[in-house]
Amino acid sequence: MSTSTGGTLSLKLAAEFPEIAGLILLSPNIEINDNKAWMLNDPWGLQLAQAIAGTYRVISDTTALYKRYWNSRYLMTAPVELEQLLETTMKTSVFEKITSPVLMLYYYKNEKEQDPVVKVSAMKRMYSALGTPDSLKRELALPNTGNHVLGSPIKSKDVASVEKACIEFGERVLRLSPVTRQ
Fold first, then answer.
1. Are 148 and 103 contacting, i.e. CB atoms less than 8 angstroms apart?
2. Global pTM?
3. For labelling alongside 131, which of 28, 46, 70, 150 has CA 20 to 30 A away?
């Protein structure tokens, strides 16, 4: 189970290790949702990013609870390295190698209200290119989460739908049995 760039890494691992039992991808980062992100990995990408945004990227959410779990300030070298990772690994040739069961969940309500961090269209292209048989993969847009971070009540407005979809996938596709608590 992974979120965002964790999904990037999960997909790469599943392509290399087909024995992975299954993937649950919450808003997997296949492509940054910024049509200028590709420039980060080109010559002078870091210099351009620093000229535009400065040495650090600062996240606007400054609540104590957010800061407890996420970095709110990071060097601009991070997006450059992230773009390099995405451009070199999130390719059809990688997706076709994946045969494990896959559940992909993402925030999408309409063209204006959708994941602002990663491209939904790129997620859908990845999903179509998977080598996983159709009977073992599920894709679900969650219109009420309102955020890229689907599985955390700190950001998501609909964690219940995420939990429901994950449990259903686990039981129906992965054939997991629920554990009863005593």
1. no
2. 0.92
3. 150
Positive/negative CA dihedral, 36, 38, 42, 45: positive
Q: What is the tens place of the pLDDT at every residue in 108-138?
A: 999 999 999 999 999 999 999 999 999 999 9
Q: What is the CA radius of gyration of the chain?
A: 17
Q: At what angle do helices 45-53 and 77-89 cross, to 10 degrees?
A: 140
DSSP letters for 104-163 = EEE-BSSSSSB-SSB-HHHHHHHHHH--S-GGGEEEEE-TTS-SS-TT-TTT-S-HHHHH
Those residues with Cβ within 8 angstroms of residue 34's Cβ, 6 or more apart along the chain or in another chain: none
